[in-house]
Amino acid sequence: MTPSHVLAAGLAATLSALPAAAFTVVVGADGPSPAADFLDFASTTFSEVSGGSITVIERSPGAAILAVQNCEADAALLPSEALADGLVAEGDGTARIPVFRTDHVIVGPKADPAGVANASTPARAYEAIAARDAPVFTFAQTQALEMQIWREAAIDPRPGRGDWWREAADPDAAIAAAASAGGYALVERGVFAASPAREGLAILNEGHPMLAVTHQLAPVAPRRCPAADTATAQKLAEWLRSVDGAVAMAAWTIGGEAPVAPVEPAAN
């Protein structure tokens, strides 16, 4: 064997011994994301199935799309159909695949002076809060959903800004303020369950379809990023929608709450 052949053989052996590049998922979220935390939790189990490791990175939804366009990820996990459909329409993603759900809940004092727990819908809950002028704390990450609920209740909360409708910097600040003032807030279930400031508060209104978020996995299109690991992205989507994925979701709890749920009955 010539020296050049020896060198080539040695290089090939070295390259084959190197670990495969980690499969990367970029999670689009405004603020703390139970979706990203769940993927971190489930990555070990999925790695046993896929044979490779997973890296989870968290960005704002807009920055997550930019990460896909810059070929920084193999798949994007996005919190809305519209965002994922846009990625596919632009040729940056191959498909929009619903993989699991998270949800928002209305929390407030355990005594519930406004009677939010008796409301049949989030809009009726907000009507009860407004009728009592009970303090309700809002923050940027959920304000779009909150305003949708106010519109359904036919109430404009803005005249009450600074009085009973109060702004907080982030979810934890809203939870802490609600606990201190005996008020209410709309927050993600997982964020509330993980908050050290939730003492004295309880989940009072939950389960309405309006409060659900279906997370969509979009594998990055090879035409955009030739090195994208589309096969592993598809395998991840199938695993999340399987019985094994549902078992992992049920196993991941925070403060007695299961923040992530299957998007539909799991397939065998």
UniProtKB/TrEMBL annotation:
SUPFAM superfamilies: Periplasmic binding protein-like II. Gene3D superfamilies: Periplasmic binding protein-like II. Residues 1-22 form the signal peptide. Keywords: Signal. This is Tungstate transport system substrate-binding protein. It comes from the Bacteria.
